[in-house]
Specification:
Number of domains: 1
Number of strands: 0
CATH superfamily: Ferritin, core subunit, four-helix bundle
Shape: elongated
Largest sheet: none
């Protein structure tokens, strides 16, 4: 990497990785959730993720960037950790509360990476690309907020009852 545009493309590769993993994992996760509000939140975010990938495709085309879908071990590790959690937790109330923590680790990565990409795009004068990335960043913040609300309002309390 030699310049800020290279760094932007590096961020985009990481974002493709996390969005691809989301598309692959979320249907499996949704299937295991028994709490309707959490299930609906993830179904909605899965639809958003498909639109986010379309935006990344448009950005890649604008930048003439090869989105060869590289794997990032740190990102894959977050999903592997979530998969391990899902296997090891037997109580559904504990599962729902703990799953939110697992999902928010991923959301926080996305917020960081999209925020960085927005800054890079603006610095490079790529305002249309920055706007597309900002749209996704706003969605990621929204998902994180929904997950936090679900946890705070009732899922964490249900898990406490298991003590």
């Amino acid at each position: 990497m030699e310049n800020l545009k290279d760094l932007l493309c590096h961020q985009l590769k990481a974002l493709y990785c996390v969005e691809d993993l989301t598309i692959n994992y979320f249907p499996l996760i949704i299937e295991k959730i028994d709490e309707p509000k959490l299930k609906n939140a993830l179904k909605f975010h899965l639809k958003e993720t498909r639109a986010q990938i379309s935006r990344l495709d448009a950005i890649s085309k604008d930048l003439k960037f090869n989105n060869n879908r590289a794997e990032f071990t740190a990102i894959s590790g977050l999903f592997d950790q979530m998969k391990e959690f899902m296997i090891n937790v037997k109580n559904s109330n504990v599962f729902n509360a703990g799953l939110i923590a697992e999902l928010q680790r991923i959301e926080h990565f996305e917020i960081c990476a999209y925020g960085t990409a927005v800054c890079y795009a603006k610095e490079l004068g790529l305002y249309r690309i920055a706007s597309l990335l900002q749209e996704t960043l706003n969605e990621e913040y929204g998902t994180n907020d929904k997950l936090s609300l679900l946890a705070k309002v009732f899922l964490n309390y249900r898990a406490v009852e298991q003590v």
